[in-house]
Structure to design on (200 residues):
């Protein structure tokens, strides 16, 4: 009987922590949800199941304020959309025009292939390369500070990333800015590209 009461108290404490956390995060969640709704919601659009899951998880990460996760999930959604398309077009184990196997191609390779195939425009390719190079890479390929010991705040290195995450007021840019740009690109561009897969 005592064990049951102890468990209930623990559950009550956990519920209280959740409610307090929800109160603290409410304004941020509301602001991020308003932003999501302001850039549109395509509803259902034709994508493979894994792409759909990445898309939804990217939106959820943004809404809950998991900014690095948002960036990574956005990139994964685009990459898997391209990869799934080329698996279908070239067959499982197929290759891209550059000779690389579809499953071994990088995000860069897939963007280039999609542009060469006129599946995406030059402008869209530029946006996706920017996502890859300027938004995603700095968080997944964090570099050391250059040998002179100085940190260039425009370069991707662990100091810049730390400042973006912990003290953005010092550099005037933060991880939220990067995530916001990534999620905007996902919601605006991914449905358009997915419709083209079906010739729509």
């Amino acid at each position: 009987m005592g064990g049951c009461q102890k468990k209930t108290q623990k559950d009550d404490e956990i519920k209280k922590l959740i409610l307090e956390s929800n109160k603290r995060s409410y304004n941020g969640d509301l602001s991020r949800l308003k932003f999501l709704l302001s850039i549109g919601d395509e509803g259902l659009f034709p994508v493979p199941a894994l792409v759909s899951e990445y898309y939804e998880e990217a939106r959820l990460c943004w809404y809950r304020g998991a900014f690095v996760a948002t960036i990574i999930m956005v990139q994964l959604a685009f990459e898997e959309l391209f990869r799934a398309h080329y698996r279908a077009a070239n067959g499982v184990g197929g290759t891209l025009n550059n000779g690389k196997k579809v499953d071994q191609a990088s995000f860069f390779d897939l963007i280039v292939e999609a542009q060469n195939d006129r599946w995406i425009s030059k402008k869209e390719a530029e946006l996706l390369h920017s996502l890859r190079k300027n938004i995603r890479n700095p968080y997944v390929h964090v570099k050391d500070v250059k040998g002179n010991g100085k940190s260039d705040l425009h370069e991707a290195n662990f100091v810049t990333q730390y400042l973006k995450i912990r003290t953005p007021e010092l550099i005037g840019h933060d991880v939220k800015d990067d995530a916001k740009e990534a999620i905007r690109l996902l919601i605006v561009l991914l449905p358009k590209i997915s419709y083209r897969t079906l010739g729509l």
